[in-house]
Amino acid sequence: MVTTSSVRALSDVRLPSGEQADILIEDGIVTAVGPGLAADRADVVHGARRLVLPGFVDGHMHLDKTLTGLPWMPHRAGPERASRIETERRMRAELPPVAPRAARLVADCVGHGTTAMRSHVDVDDAIGLSHVAALLAVREAAAAHVDLQLVAFPQSGVLNRPGVRSLLDAAIAAGCDLLGGIDPVAIDGDLDGQLDVLFAIAERRGVGLDIHLHDPGAAGMAEIAGVVERTRVHGMAGHVTVSHGFCLGAADDSDLERLAASMAEAGVALVTHGGGASPMPPVKRLRERGVTVFAGNDDIRDPWSPLGTGDMLERAMLIAWRGGYRTDADLAVALDVATTSGAQGLGLPRHGPRVGSRADLVLVDAETPAEAVARRPGRALVLKGGRVVARDGALTEPLVLA
Amino acid sequence: MVTTSSVRALSDVRLPSGEQADILIEDGIVTAVGPGLAADRADVVHGARRLVLPGFVDGHMHLDKTLTGLPWMPHRAGPERASRIETERRMRAELPPVAPRAARLVADCVGHGTTAMRSHVDVDDAIGLSHVAALLAVREAAAAHVDLQLVAFPQSGVLNRPGVRSLLDAAIAAGCDLLGGIDPVAIDGDLDGQLDVLFAIAERRGVGLDIHLHDPGAAGMAEIAGVVERTRVHGMAGHVTVSHGFCLGAADDSDLERLAASMAEAGVALVTHGGGASPMPPVKRLRERGVTVFAGNDDIRDPWSPLGTGDMLERAMLIAWRGGYRTDADLAVALDVATTSGAQGLGLPRHGPRVGSRADLVLVDAETPAEAVARRPGRALVLKGGRVVARDGALTEPLVLA
Fold first, then answer.
1. CA distance A334 to A295
2. Nearest CA in chain A to B280
3. pLDDT of the residue at A335
4. Do B370 and A77 touch (CB under 8 A)?
5. Domain count, chain B
């Protein structure tokens, strides 16, 4: 642990409400927020009237896939999901080891203000648990910098690949935090079959689920309904996430209302990257119906997409742009899904500049949270549990893989 | 003129094709491209193996509206276009003068590598030609930095506002380069009426047209058909642009093919910002059908939207993200609409790193154009007609308003 960078007080910051204040921190928790508190304290970091935001939560990543930092590699896959899966499987042998690539991206994200993240990690019949082992090592190396949840992710399918079912179980035993899944209809051709397997493992192991659902239209809606029903039956409210759920972005009013109500009632959350070329689920409406919605960067320069950065403020902007958000209240929604709702979706303790919250904080040069989303200023300071982990985009202490 | 910053040669740059080369420049024109050419030349700028791109062309701006650089102002308008028009009219009196605001944004854009731009400028019954006068002054002040085309833009409508018709005519007489228009159906309630007035002025004054068409569905398609028909009748191929054309992003196949073919045949171009919350016109398909498609940032923090920056590489990324572009060839399309096709759409001389082209060039740290779009590195150097106008994002000589 790097005790020298622990902070007891942040002085002269601007709160999201606009007020100037000092923030006192003890044992990584915010203990007081108000004017003049830091005047006679040691270990004070001067905020220079910068805006303080809750640490960013990247709720959907693929750390083991990233090509960030490597020489440019043109995208090779065709436009279909199946082509991307097969192309990625072929490419893996050419790539340098997973752990250093992933660690580099984690460092980049922390520099951008991310203090918690959830990464899927591929588990399949070709690589077994090797990516899991690599990301477990990254999680350990980055433990003081960021909360990292790992989702054992059957990218190539569950039922259609021999041995994946037991590999997923073994991935949880090895230390993954959640169980993943993918498009039971399109990939496995068996909606109930894949979901039954996943929920059975999750219940036996006592872990949550985060399931990729890209399928459009009726298939996607049936998949969401299947996830919702099993979440209710297994009593897993608050522990199940639908990733993407593009079908919600194209659903008609009655389907949307029905699905949103059932997700809210069952405690099934949604994570979105904003849709891109696919329809973006209606973030504001889902929130209004009681669904926990949070945001993630998803692909960050990997075999699935050459686009993407580790910056969750940019992701908030993309969601705002795609959603037509303009008012400060709407831009606050875009920031909330990248911060506070992200922590809720990941089941983490409350964080941010409020008494009793964990001191995961980001300082930026902006007047308001809305301006931060619109302009995306550099990250002057990143605190993780009261420790300074990054300044001006760079880590204060490097990540060291064992 | 700032002769000290004229460049005779750029050495050791990486061409978009990937080859290392030197670039020789005389009188603002590229005269030779190849290895070893700059070895014994004076006035050499060392490219340090950076990638050289054509200068960026921002094909749709509203310089007179920007709030960039001002204290944060929350968005005030409601979600309807009419509310935005009325809110903006009320806000104008509170804002500082147009020319310094606009000049600041121009400087920011040039720092980001934009070497040519087309800005609409509001003309209406409340402000008359005052914004036109301000932007004419900015055009003069920025003449050595950027090509700036001005479109006399009836933001509040043409037929429904007394005197706007003659104000538009006067704006052209005062020096605007093109005539604008806006949603004849939704704003004026008279498709033929507005278009007839606009084409009559344009023909009499010998200028082109660039008409905002946001209207969705049948109204939008009828407006495009009306623009196409008049472009043909008036023999204005290559001088007419449809801005936005959101209806093309939601048209069914047969409507799209019909409209695309008619636009290509009549020589009507399309400029897009990528759609955001509206459907993005199918950029690749329109290009394949022979339509000139180019890109613009549109709102850059103004009363219409708090989002937007002056960075056309970011705009290229947004178009790629919205279009699902992943391959190097597709990312090259996203860059092309922000550079070469932009110059074509604006009717400008060919520019970029090719013999005979104007030396409007941008150097960035990237291996390939695709990587430049995906990662958007800083702009190390911006050349306008062979002169260094910006380094590392900052102008080498400030813009000075008379």
1. 9
2. A277
3. 98
4. no
5. 2
